[in-house]
Write a structure and sequence with these properties.
seven-stranded parallel β-sheet, globular
Length: about 350
């Protein structure tokens, strides 16, 4: 009898973000996690799909624009061909077609259904999620959203991990910071600029912070976006850093006086844990999954300008309670490892097989 086979299917992208980091870590650990769980040897393969004319590296080509919008029957047939021979097929994007058996899906969040400025939802996704052998959600919050809005039954909750380089990261050297336009202490926001990120409130909060902390700068890291530019370009004390190489980010986080995560909605909220791991105080909105991830180790504030400003001012005050919060955050981050996440994925795969 041949060994069971797990395929983990992803979509090639030229601009990897947090979801792609998750994919990379789980794929790298999948085989060892399965062996550690049961002692059985699994064949694990990664399927990197791409569109018919994409120049990106991949294993399979699909008409992705058509497949994402195709009727259920067409998507089923595409999945039957794509995952032929699999015991379990784990698709890490809803755009990918479903597997005929052992269909496991990761659902990071339901922003496609909640926010009109996000990518439109895949028309067949809800029906396919309800039929899937298992749905993995990255937080209790996301799981409850999936239950309430989509009608998923018994989703599996598997938290993300924190990349090792963030733990006790050395701050970027002053010369590197100056090269980025940062010549003094700064607060860092890293991430996207969709409306759910609540940058409007952060922009309104910043003048309040500057009145109390005139030496402090606000550094914004993330892919260029017209909303971010419109809100912050030319604002005193603000530096738009753009998209930075991933290897710079741990040092940039570690050199910050505080991390601010003002989002209205996050499926998980990894920047909170990255700040914790790097021994930096974190100010986070008391919304969605952020309290679940942060626990009592962050300054949780209402997602409005006055509260965000007060949180940043408190986090940069030098108060002894902030040092205790930093220590608590470092301890909390240590519990969110990719090894633990992969082991939980393996339990799902094994149960489906």
């Amino acid at each position: 009898m041949s060994a069971p086979r797990l395929s983990i299917a992803t979509i090639a992208t030229a601009a990897p973000m947090g979801a792609q980091a998750y994919e990379r870590h789980i794929i790298a650990r999948a085989a060892n996690a399965l062996t550690s769980l049961s002692g059985d040897t699994w064949r694990v393969r990664e399927l990197v799909t791409r569109s018919l004319r994409s120049p990106l590296t991949g294993d399979r080509r699909l008409p992705m624009g058509y497949i994402a919008k195709a009727p259920v029957a067409v998507r089923r047939e595409a999945g039957r061909l794509l995952y032929a021979g699999d015991t379990v097929s784990h698709r890490m994007s809803l755009e990918l077609p479903p597997a005929p058996r052992g269909d496991v899906v990761t659902l990071h969040d339901i922003v496609a259904w909640r926010f009109p400025d996000e990518s439109a939802p895949v028309p067949a996704a809800i029906a396919e999620l309800r039929r899937a052998a298992a749905v993995i959600c990255v937080s209790e919050f996301s799981a409850q959203e999936a239950i309430d809005l989509i009608g998923i039954r018994d989703p599996h909750i598997v938290h993300n991990g924190v990349d090792d380089p963030y733990f006790d990261a050395a701050p970027l050297e002053r010369s590197s910071l100056i090269g980025l336009g940062l010549d003094g202490p700064y607060v860092l926001h890293a991430g996207g600029a969709a409306r759910r990120k609540n940058l409007e409130a952060l922009a309104s909060a910043w003048p309040i912070v500057r009145r109390e902390r005139p030496h402090l700068e606000l550094a914004l890291s993330g892919p260029p976006h017209p909303r971010r530019t419109e809100l912050f370009d030319g604002m005193p004390g603000v530096r738009l850093l753009g998209r930075l190489p991933s290897e710079l980010m741990p040092g940039l986080v570690a050199a910050a006086d505080a991390i601010v995560v003002p989002s209205l909605y996050e499926g998980f909220g990894l920047p909170v844990l990255e700040g914790f791991a790097a021994n930096v105080p974190v100010v986070a909105a008391d919304t969605s999954s952020l309290p679940e991830v942060a626990g009592s180790a962050a300054l949780l504030v209402a997602p409005d300008a006055a509260a965000i400003a007060a949180g940043i001012i408190d986090a940069t005050s030098g108060d002894p309670t902030i040092a205790r919060m930093i220590a608590e955050g470092r301890s909390r981050a240590a519990g969110f490892t990719w090894e633990r996440s992969a082991a939980a994925h393996a339990r799902v795969w094994e149960s489906v097989s």
